Amino acid sequence: MTFRNPLVIMALALSTACGHAVKGPVLALDSTVINLDTVSYNTPRVVKYDLRVRNKGDVNLVLKDFRVDCDCTKAEADTCVLAPGETSLIHVSIQFFIPQSEPFAKQLTIITNDTVNTPLNVTFRGYAKFLKPVYNTPSQRQRYSQQ
Predict the structure, then answer these.
(1) If you placed Cys at 66, which of 11, 75, 121, 147 could pair as Cys (CB 3.0 to 4.6 Å)?
(2) What angle do CA 32, 35, 36 make, to 5 degrees?
(3) Distances (CA, A) of 132 to 74, 101, 129, 139, 142
(4) What span, in angstroms and rounded, lies between the C-alpha atoms of 1 and 15?
């Protein structure tokens, strides 16, 4: 088949150069930095966040492992295998229990079979604000002072 029209030749060249799909699995996130703002607590508190992940590749994406930088952070996926174009959630929970106020940055590392974007680090940051517990009754005050 021979094309003599230069516009047809240019359109074919552009479609093959720019329109070819990415080969292999591709992990995609909306952001790798999640701002949780201020987390206020006066007793241990767990903050939950659902991280949306998507496979932008042309073969299955496998979520192999999650690594966290501290025991206070947990991560669990709805599904570990995402077909091309499929979206899933990683449920992240961070527990705050230290009685002090300070900035925080917790890191989640996502290990996949994506050869370009693995490992992928996601940072959850904000300010942990510890509020002094309020005890309204004498028995509550007494119990607190004995601890």
Answers:
(1) 75
(2) 130
(3) 26, 11, 10, 17, 15
(4) 17
CA angle 112, 116, 121 (to 5 degrees): 60
Contact 105, 77 (CB under 8 A): no
pLDDT in tens, 58-86: 999 999 999 999 999 999 999 999 999 99
Enter the pTM of the model: 0.75
Residue 61 has a CB neighbour count (10 Å cut-off) of 27
* CA–CA dist 9, 60 (Å, integer): 34
- Interior CA angle at 97 toward 92 and 101, to 5°? 105
Mean pLDDT value across residues 84-113: 96
Residue 75 pairs with which residues in a beta bridge? 92
